[in-house]
């Protein structure tokens, strides 16, 4: 299912991608728990789609759409959780941890630009 969501996201069908990614994440959390690498990947995928939605919203109307949508905030909060889990589960120097930190900084930068 996550592959389908990725394809939908790439094709710009973000509503559908987000819905599937939330289902995948809920399933992963229930079956594997929050510390499993597949669950962490599902969180990153959802954060990526939320970021895309927030970025598109801010492109339309930089401050009003951003504050109304909350997608960037949700992406930021989710990614902060991902970074914390990555450090705990994978270690400080793991590639996924480092990529997640860079992505989080990018989201924070995007929020600063939009406000």
TrEMBL record:
Fetch the Gene3D superfamilies from UniProt.
Answer: Tetratricopeptide repeat domain (1.25.40.10)
Q: Which InterPro entries match?
A: NLR-like, TPR-like_helical_dom_sf
Instruction: Kindly give the Pfam families that the UniProt entry links to this protein.
Output: TPR_10, TPR_12
Matching SUPFAM superfamilies: TPR-like
**Protein name, UniProt field:** Kinesin light chain
Task: Give the species.
Answer: Serendipita indica (strain DSM 11827)
């Amino acid at each position: 299912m996550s592959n389908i969501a990725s394809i939908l996201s790439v094709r710009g069908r973000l509503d559908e991608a987000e819905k599937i990614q939330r289902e995948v994440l809920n399933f992963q959390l229930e079956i594997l728990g929050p510390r499993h690498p597949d669950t962490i990947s599902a969180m990153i995928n959802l954060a990526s789609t939320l970021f895309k939605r927030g970025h598109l919203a801010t492109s339309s109307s930089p401050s009003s759409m951003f504050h109304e949508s909350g997608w960037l905030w949700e992406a930021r909060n989710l990614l902060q959780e991902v970074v914390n889990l990555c450090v705990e589960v994978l270690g400080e120097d793991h590639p996924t941890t480092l990529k997640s930190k860079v992505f989080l900084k990018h989201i924070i930068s995007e929020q600063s630009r939009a406000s």
